[in-house]
Request: fold
Amino acid sequence: MPELPEVETTRRTLAPRIEGANIEAVRLGKPLRWPLGCDAERLVGRTVGALERRGKYLWMPLGDGGLLIHLGMSGSLGFHDGAAPPGGPHDHFDLVTSRGTMRLHDPRRFGAVVWSPSRDEGPAARLLAGLGLEPFDAAFDGAHLHRALRGRRMAIKQALLAGDVVVGAGNIYACEALFDAGIDPRLPAGRLSRPRCERLAASLRATLAGALGMGGTTLRDFRDAHGMSGTFQQQARVYGREGEPCGACGTRVRRVVQGQRSTFFCPRCQRR
DNA sequence: CTGGGCTCCTGTCAGC
DNA sequence: TGCTGACAGGAGCCCA
Reply:
């Protein structure tokens, strides 16, 4: 689930509670997408540095190395002061620290916690390589989008999800940003004019920023580190609204499938 | 290099 | 009520 707003919300709520904490123990549940990549004992005694986010990944520095964390489709990170309650069947990674316990809850287990000697080498470097620009990076604008999409035949919706041009948008925000920009999600990416790229860049930033301001989207199980739900889902104008009238023109919102993922759009407001 | 499809896993819900 | 299939916020990997 977690797209950029949810991951950033997690980072912001978790950081003040865990940064500077000393790791006292690690508890592993069922296997996640990838193995931890080191002996859990190797984490004990380390101090948690400043949490960083890159795309939908979180990087937790731990001295000479750190953990690259991804929440997959159903993951969330909670933080418990003092002694944490016993882990449930979907709690697969606990970092017990001097300040409390950080717990990864992830029913589907598409998430991951991977040790890497640094952000720029080893597994972290491999996973982060090839990621596109951060949407709030000053270098991300219509010109970049236009240049990066040139020659691409893939539909613009899928190009946004691919993450090699710009990171952060997942299925919800790609749909919402394209609605905001008035662009048909099925349009081949390379066919977008420069002005429409300008519009889309602005819409993507506005959509992600808006969702961030609402603590993200909670469809079923996303929670921030304090256990709070996001509220963006109430603002979604097309995502999950197949058959409902478009708030702008009244036309029924359509759902199509692109790359095995649902795409929601207004056939009248979003043009080719 | 590009793009399409598959896969990992569990839970939920609609429909019969 | 019970079973079955579709679908769910991601993205790495393999193959054409």
In short: The beta strands of chain A are 23-28, 52-54, 57-61, 66-70, 76-81, 91-97, 100-105, 112-116, 254-258, 261-265.
